[in-house]
Amino acid sequence: MNQLKIKFRRVSSALLLSTLYLTTLTNCLAQANGEKPVTIQVDLAKSMGPLKPIWAWFGYDEPNYTYMKDGKKLLTELSTIGKAPVYVRVHSLLVTGDGEAALKWGSTNAYTEDANGKPVYNWTIVDKIFDTFIQRGMKPIAQIGFMPQALSVKPEPYRHHWKPGDNYNDIYLGWAYPPKDYNKWAELVYQWVKHSVKRYGQKEVESWYWELWNEPNISYWKGTVDEYIKLYDYTADAVKRALPTARIGGPEVTGPGWEGSRKFFIPFMEHVVNGKNYVTGETGSPIDFITFHAKGAPKVVDGHVQMNMGTQLRDIDKGFEIVASYPKLKNLPIIIGESDPEGCAACSEDVNPENAYRNGTMYSSYTAASFARKYDLAQARSVNLAGAVTWAFEFENQPWFRGFRDLATNGVDKPVLNVFRMFGMMPTTRVEVKNDLAYDYVRVRDESVRKEADINALASKNNESAAVMVWNYHDDNVAGPDASVSLRLSGLPNKGVTVHHYRIDQKFSNSYEAWKKMGSPKTPTKEQIAELEKAGQLQQFAAPQRLQVTNQEATLNFALPRQGVSLLKLTWD
């Protein structure tokens, strides 16, 4: 027995020495590349409150992709990335049409009228969409819109056939107009909610979010501010009549930092608090959560893509500021209904070169760095951020890696999806990361990341584990030196700790680089597709290691490439 113990200790010592040698070698190599070492201090003993799963929210324009082959595959993957339920938001759930899927278009034919003007409700396609979510344990953000053709004050022209390169303003046709009869609209909403309760059960529908429209401060709404407010009152009243415990919210404006947006957002907020309700005549309107959108603004500079994270964060901050200014509303959940590096998911890279960040690791590192700052902004404004919707899904039957803002291409996961897998592995109590690094949320908000790289971390823990996400991000998509990271952990248990190191970079968790190495085939073979699918999964950077803990402290040294993301997952016996 003693001999076994001696052998075990010798093996353990050898493994420890090997680990120390490898981390020291990695650190030296990174310093040789010329990057100043960066020390990140994480104190697991200092709780910063809950790390809400604000990342577990996704959305897309084309609702009919939901039940198509690659759509189902991606939704299945998204539904399993964490323990929290995943919320899904889609457009066009009330649009008239045959259910054909197309770019920036979708339809369900939920509402038509017979020859005498009597409503005809058909929930077949809506059910097909929601069934796909519910079967996977996902939760709809049930977007109430857009206007059925039979109800629109301007029913013709109604359908667009937009494609990348076409004028974006050409899509806003009859579906974007107010109803010619608000009572018929309200009855449509009432029937939809009642049908949902009958089909899925009251408890299930109570867990959804019902919202009105999308970006009504721009051309998605061809009515006035007052007409939208009137529509909201009729909609909220109908939802609550059908299910008093249902959650209803809005207004889903985009760009709270814009003056034009505030001219919509603030009157809406004033109305739901102090205005005369269009339906009841009483003061105020039912509202259970508040929504707005925030986007970045990339451009091409000197032949490369330059992101602008600051633009997105300033919009988020202004939205939080507006909500916080209303004492009756500031504690309501906030959903950033679309939260992305820019505004058009269906605008492909081949037509819009500023979107060339989407296939590779720039999108994944941007996502890691920006989500961490959303937590910071919400905490600074003392608001209740419930979710931030990533407006990215998949585009069925499109060329491989065309450069849409999507999470997968032809069923193969792109690097950005692996950031969400990392988020899904993080425990739910946020812990302190010392903010004496080059950037904090204030500097990124005000300046974006235009000077040195943003090398930082987000960390969390529970009783059995901890996780630290580390990124090396820069707004300019140009080559840069690896970062030499020294991750110093305190508050660890004085017992056996195992580290699993996951990585997204040019070599790991990157189907795009694998595809390019194949020669960028336009029609990959079955064998190539299998290889790409494997490359698209989250991969470990190294074999699991036992961590040497002394006085509840330990250090991990590693090199992190520019636009790379690491997740260090720690578990203990």
Primary descriptors:
hydrolase, Immunoglobulin-like, glycosidase, ten-stranded mixed β-sheet, signal, 25 strands, alpha/beta, Beta-xylosidase, nine-stranded parallel β-sheet, 2 domains, TIM Barrel, 573 residues
Short description:
This protein is of the alpha/beta class and 573 residues long. Helix content is 32%, strand content 24%. The protein has 2 domains: 174 residues, Sandwich (Immunoglobulin-like), CATH 2.60.40; 373 residues, TIM Barrel, CATH 3.20.20.80.
Describe the protein in words.
The protein is of the alpha/beta class. The protein folds into two domains: 21-49 and 428-572, Immunoglobulin-like (Sandwich); 52-424, Alpha-Beta Barrel (TIM Barrel), CATH 3.20.20.80. It is 32% helix and 24% strand. It is built from 13 helices and 25 strands. Strands 1, 17, 18, 19, 20, 21, 22, 23, 24 and 25 form a ten-stranded mixed beta sheet that branches. The protein has a nine-stranded parallel beta sheet with strand order 13-12-9-8-7-6-3-2-14, with helices on one face. It has a two-stranded antiparallel ribbon with strand order 4-5. The radius of gyration is 25 Å and the shape is globular. The relative contact order is 0.13. Mean pLDDT is 94; it is low at 1-34. Belongs to the glycosyl hydrolase 39 family. Residues 1-32 form the signal peptide. Keywords: Glycosidase, Hydrolase, Signal. This is Beta-xylosidase. Pfam families: Glyco_hydro_39.
